[in-house]
Design goal:
The structure holds two protein chains of two kinds. Chain A has a domain of 201 residues. In chain A, 5% of the residues lie in helices and 61% in strands. The longest helix of chain A is centred in the first third of the chain and has 20 residues. The radius of gyration of chain A is 31 Å and the shape is globular. The two termini of chain A are 57 Å apart. By secondary structure, chain B is mainly beta. Chain B has one domain. A five-stranded antiparallel β-sheet of chain B has the order 1-2-3-4-5, with no helix packed on it. In chain B, a hairpin with a 5-residue loop joins strand 1 and strand 2. Chain B starts with a strand and ends with a strand. Classes of the chains: A mainly beta, B mainly beta. Strand 29 of chain A pairs antiparallel with strand 1 of chain B.
Chain lengths: 576, 133
C-alpha cells in the first residue's frame, strides 16, 4: 500500500510540470459555488432500527458546500454535505490540463443492526430441560458506522497520449458494535450474547496501465486488498458441562469446551489479504467485427489460518454485424477456483464422572468422523452465451434469440448422488417493437433447464429405526452419526427447470409517460429423492410521470410482488 | 439419544405479498418559491401455512413425545407496513440567497414481531440558509 501511495505522489509531481508547460495561452477564469448552513432536529419514538435503518437520528448543525472552478490550469468540482457526524458525503473531481484527472467520493452513514433480546430462544421441555439466555450487554445499541472513500486518478502524458496510467484507492471502514453469540451446552442450553467492538478496515489499492490506439485498447490492473479487524474477537467462558437433571459432569467427552478451559476467544472475525491481476483487450474492425478478451487471476488468504483460495478466469467476447439488420454475438468464459482442504483437530475431552468416567468419545465409539474438510467451491467452470438478433425495421421491431450454456465440474462436492457436474441450458427469445408513435412494447421468454442442480445429497429424512435404550451410556445406543448415515432425502433451494416471462409497455402522450412491467418466474426441482421444491414469483410495476411544465412536475407509481414457495421439512423422530 | 423411529415429513408452504404506492410533485409557483412533496407507502405480509409433522405410531407408544405444531407456522410471520413522507419548501429572497425547510417522517409498523418489536417512528426537520456566488 505504501508503494501505491508513493507511486501516486510521484506521478502527480511528474505530471504537474508537463501540465503547466502545456498552457495553450487562452485565458479561462470562472468560479461559482454555494454554501448552505442550518440545523437538524430529530424526534424518535419507539425503535429507530427499521424506520431509520440507514439514517442518522442525531441532532446538530448541518451544512452543504459546492464549489466549481474552471481555470487555465484545469477544473475543480467539490461538493460536501454534512447531515451529522455519522452521515455525510462528498465528491472531489479535478483535472489538470486533461493530463491529471481525478475522481474522489466519500460517503458515511450508520447501519442499525438491531438488538436481539433472544426471547425466541427460550423454551422449556416437559421434563424441565430449559433453553435460556443471558444478555451481558442489555443496553448496547448495535450499530455499524459505514464510511467509504474511493479515488481514481488518471495520468496521461503530453508526449505519449496513447498511454494512460491510473491509480485507484478505496478504503472502507465499519466501526461500532455487533452482537456476539455463544452457545453453551449442556447444563441446559444457554445462549449468551455480548457486545463486540468492531473497527474493521478494508483497503484496496490498484495500479492500472492502458495503451489505446484507434481501434483498440490493452489494459493491465493489479489490486491489493487488505481486510483488518482491530478487535478480531471477544472473550468468553463456557459453562460447566452438567447433565440437566443429574447436575453432574457425566458426558464431558461429547463436548469441545467446558468452564475448565477458562477464558477463550469467541466470535472470531477473520482477516484477509487478496491480490488480483487483470488483463483486458478490446479491438474493433471497420467492418463491424469486434472482440474483447480478459483474464483475471486472484489469490485470497486468511491471515488467521493461512487457508488460501485461488481463482483464474478468462473471458472472450466476439460480435459481428452482417448488413444493417443481423447481429451475432458470442461470449465465452472458463474459470477455476481452488481452496485448500483443512483438517480440524477435535478436542477429545475425558468425562470425569458417571458410567463413562475416564474415557474419551473415540475410545468408546471409535473415530467415526472424517475431520478433513474439502472445499465445495473447488471447481472448473465454463460458460457460453450466444445471441443473434434481427431488426425487421423501424415499424416491425427487433427479434432476438439466445442460448446460454454453463457447466460446473466440482472437485469434491456431490450435487446429486455420484454426480459432481452441473450443466445449465437457458433458451430465450425477446421481441421489441414500437408499433405506433409513443408506444413501446417489450416481451421476453426464457426457459432454463439444469442437469444436477445444486442439492445437498442425503441431507435429511433419516430412516434409522433403532431399539430404545433407557441407559444413554450404553455403547450400543445409536449415535447422531448413525442417524446421519441413514438420511435419504436431497434438499435444495435451486430450480432444475424454470420459466421466466416479461411483458413491458411504455406509452407517451403529450408530456406524460406511462410505463408498466410484469415479470413472472416459475421453477421446480423434483430431481432428488424426496426433493419436492417449487417456487413462483410475480412482480408488477406501473408508473406515470410528467415533467408538466416550467412550474411543476409529478409522478405516481405502484409496485406489487407475490411469491410462494413449497419445500419439504423432515425431522428425525428421536426418543430423548 | 435413547433411540430413533425413522422420520416425519411434511411440505412447508410459504407465501409473501408486498404492495407499494408512491407519488410526488414539485411545484415552482413563482420566482421565489419551490415546493416538493414525496410520499411512499408499503405493506408486506408473509408466512407459512399450518403444517404437521406427525409420528402417530411412535407417539402412540411414547405419549410424552407428542408435539404440538399448531402455532409453529406463525413464528416466522411477517406483517409490516411503512409510511414515508418528505416535504421541502424553499424561498429565494433573490437569486443568490435562500431559506430552505425540509421535513421527513418514516413510520414503520411491525404488526407481527419476530425477534423483537421493531415498530418505530422517526421525524427529521432541517432549516437552512443558503448563499450562492
Amino acid at each position: 500500500m505504501k508503494a501505491i501511495k508513493f507511486f501516486v505522489l510521484a506521478a502527480l509531481l511528474a505530471a504537474l510540470p508537463l501540465a503547466v508547460a502545456a498552457d495553450d495561452g487562452e485565458s479561462t477564469n470562472e468560479t461559482k459555488g454555494s454554501i448552505e448552513i442550518g440545523g437538524l432536529f430529530t424526534d424518535v419514538s419507539e425503535s429507530p432500527d427499521m424506520a431509520a435503518e440507514f439514517n442518522t437520528i442525531n441532532e446538530g448543525p448541518v451544512g452543504k458546500i459546492k464549489l466549481a472552478t474552471f481555470q487555465n490550469w484545469g477544473a475543480l468540482n467539490f461538493k460536501f454535505k454534512y447531515a451529522a457526524q455519522d452521515q455525510n458525503s462528498g465528491d472531489l473531481d479535478f483535472d489538470i490540463k486533461r493530463m491529471v484527472r481525478s475522481h474522489n467520493t466519500y460517503s458515511a452513514f450508520p447501519h442499525r443492526l438491531g438488538h436481539d433480546p433472544m426471547f425466541a430462544l427460550n423454551s422449556t421441555s416437559r421434563n424441565g430441560k430449559v433453553v435460556r439466555n443471558t444478555d451481558m450487554s442489555p443496553n448496547q445499541d448495535y450499530v455499524l458506522n459505514y464510511a467509504v472513500f474511493e479515488d481514481r486518478t488518471e495520468l496521461q502524458f503530453p508526449g505519449f497520449r496513447p498511454l494512460t496510467l491510473a491509480v485507484e484507492f478505496r478504503e472502507q471502514n465499519r466501526n461500532g458494535h455487533t452482537q456476539a453469540f455463544t452457545t453453551n451446552h449442556c447444563d441446559n442450553c444457554h445462549i449468551k450474547s455480548q457486545k463486540h467492538r468492531r473497527d474493521q478496515q478494508t483497503t484496496d489499492g490498484t495500479l492500472e496501465a492502458a495503451v489505446a490506439w484507434k481501434s483498440g485498447v490493452v489494459r493491465a490492473r493489479y489490486t491489493n486488498r487488505k481486510l483488518r479487524e482491530a478487535h478480531p474477537s471477544v472473550t468468553g467462558t463456557f459453562d460447566k458441562n452438567l447433565h440437566p437433571e443429574l447436575q453432574a459432569p457425566v458426558f464431558d467427552n461429547r463436548m469441545q469446551y467446558d468452564s475448565d478451559a477458562g477464558v477463550v476467544p469467541v466470535d472470531l472475525k477473520p482477516e484477509i489479504d487478496k491480490n488480483t491481476t487483470r488483463l483486458d483487450f478490446r479491438w474493433a474492425s471497420k467492418n463491424g467485427f469486434a472482440v474483447t478478451a480478459n483474464g483475471v487471476w486472484s489469490e485470497t488468504k486468511s491471515r488467521n489460518t493461512g487457508n488460501k483460495a485461488d481463482y483464474s478466469g478468462y473471458v472472450v467476447t466476439a460480435a459481428k454485424r452482417f448488413g444493417n439488420n443481423f447481429r451475432l454475438r458470442w461470449n465465452g468464459k472458463v474459470y477455476q477456483t481452488e481452496t485448500n482442504s483443512v483438517y480440524i483437530e477435535p478436542i477429545q475431552r475425558v468425562t470425569p464422572a458417571g458410567p463413562q468416567a475416564g474415557t474419551t468419545y473415540f475410545e468408546i465409539y471409535g473415530d467415526l468422523f472424517n475431520q478433513t474438510r474439502n472445499s465445495a467451491l473447488n471447481r472448473d467452470g465454463a460458460d457460453s452465451k450466444l445471441d443473434a438478433s434481427y431488426r425487421f425495421g423501424r415499424k416491425w421491431g427487433t427479434l432476438r434469440g439466445f442460448w446460454n450454456y454453463g457447466v460446473i465440474d466440482r472437485e469434491y462436492y456431490e450435487v446429486a448422488p455420484g454426480e459432481k457436474k452441473t450443466t445449465t441450458n437457458v433458451f430465450g427469445v425477446t421481441y421489441r417493437v414500437r408499433p405506433a408513435k409513443g408506444l413501446r412494447l417489450d416481451a421476453e421468454f426464457k426457459h432454463g433447464d439444469v442437469n444436477n442442480a445444486f442439492m445437498v445429497v442425503d441431507a435429511t429424512c433419516s430412516t434409522l429405526v433403532s431399539d430404545r435404550y433407557t441407559n444413554p451410556w450404553n455403547p450400543e445406543t445409536p449415535q447422531y452419526v448413525d442417524s446421519h448415515a441413514t438420511r435419504i432425502a436431497e434438499t435444495t433451494a435451486t430450480a432444475s427447470s424454470w420459466n421466466r416471462a416479461v411483458l413491458a409497455i411504455g406509452y407517451s402522450f403529450g408530456q406524460t409517460t406511462l410505463s408498466g412491467r410484469y415479470v413472472y418466474w416459475d421453477g421446480t426441482n423434483t430431481d432428488g429423492d424426496l426433493t419436492d421444491w417449487s417456487k413462483n414469483r410475480s412482480t408488477a410495476t406501473i408508473t406515470a410521470w410528467s415533467p408538466g411544465g416550467a412550474s411543476w412536475d409529478w409522478y405516481v407509481g405502484w409496485a406489487y410482488q407475490d411469491m410462494s414457495l413449497d419445500t419439504p421439512a423432515c425431522i428425525a423422530v428421536f426418543d430423548g | 439419544m435413547g433411540g430413533q423411529d425413522g422420520f416425519s415429513r411434511d411440505i412447508l408452504k410459504y407465501s409473501e405479498t408486498s404492495n407499494s404506492i408512491l407519488a410526488g410533485v414539485k411545484v415552482h409557483p413563482g420566482n421565489h418559491w419551490d415546493l416538493g412533496l414525496n410520499v411512499t407507502y408499503t405493506a408486506s405480509e408473509g408466512g407459512l401455512d399450518p403444517f404437521d409433522l406427525p409420528a402417530d405410531d411412535y407417539v402412540a407408544v411414547t405419549p410424552p413425545m407428542s408435539y404440538d405444531f399448531s402455532k409453529s407456522n406463525t413464528y416466522s410471520n411477517i406483517d409490516i407496513d411503512r409510511f414515508n413522507f418528505d416535504a421541502m419548501l424553499k424561498y429565494k429572497f433573490d437569486n443568490d440567497i435562500w431559506l430552505r425547510f425540509w421535513y421527513q417522517i418514516a413510520d414503520f409498523n411491525d404488526n407481527d414481531p419476530y425477534l423483537y418489536d421493531t415498530t418505530g417512528m422517526v421525524q427529521w426537520a432541517t432549516v437552512t440558509a443558503g448563499w450562492s456566488f
